[in-house]
UniProtKB/TrEMBL annotation:
Name of protein: Neurotransmitter-gated ion-channel ligand-binding domain-containing protein
Any one GO MF annotation of this record: transmembrane signaling receptor activity
Domain of life according to the entry: Eukaryota
Lineage: Eukaryota, Metazoa, Ecdysozoa, Nematoda, Chromadorea
InterPro entries the UniProt entry points to: Neur_chan_lig-bd (IPR006202), Neur_chan_lig-bd_sf (IPR036734), Neur_channel (IPR006201), Neuro-gated_channel_TM_sf (IPR036719), Neuro_actylchol_rec (IPR038050)
Organism field: Cylicocyclus nassatus
Amino acid sequence: MVTVFPFDHQNCSLKLLSYSFYRHEIKLQNAIFEDLDISTVGNDEWEVTNIISCNDQLNSSNGEAVQLGQSLRSTNCDICERNPSYYIALIIIPSFILTFLCVAGLFSSSLIVDDLDKFCMGLTTIMSTTVMIGIVAENIPKTKIIPNLIVYVTTNLIIVGTAILIIIVLPKISQFLEWIFRCCKLRCARRHCGIPMGMMNAALLVIFEGYVIKNLLDLVGGAFS
């Protein structure tokens, strides 16, 4: 299943049959050696978890495959499990740490107008996440199904982008409200306007960090569901 990449399992089948002999003219016998150690079959990327062999009759009689309909078929199935260590160490953990720390840096202090330090930090995180997306794109199968790993990294990118947008827009809104208070001479409201902003800042921190953690849990949960 490509959806749970890189925690996926693949079924690799090798089918053998004869195009020249009928089933009563040839005998196909498929079996696995009893002393075969499947732990030595895989490589650094794939681990073979099981090997299945079977013999069956090919039941096909459509046009050009009339003769094959009377043939025997031998099938070997190798069930492989991908080793996800490369993707965990290079993409999943760094993406989580970058996004988590970036959100913490954006909302841990008061939001001020034209805070270039936070803006630059967010853009740096976006560029780093874009590099990770490029690494994933080079290694994933090119199918119409989007793997969960791509969804995970892209979601982190959206979280950081949304957080940057908020730190740009929210101080402008607060500044606009203060201007309205000054125009209306609402001194009491001006005196207490910082309290709701501080609470909103803390709420945004909790909400965004919650989404970062939820995104990671969705990736891990989808792999083992």
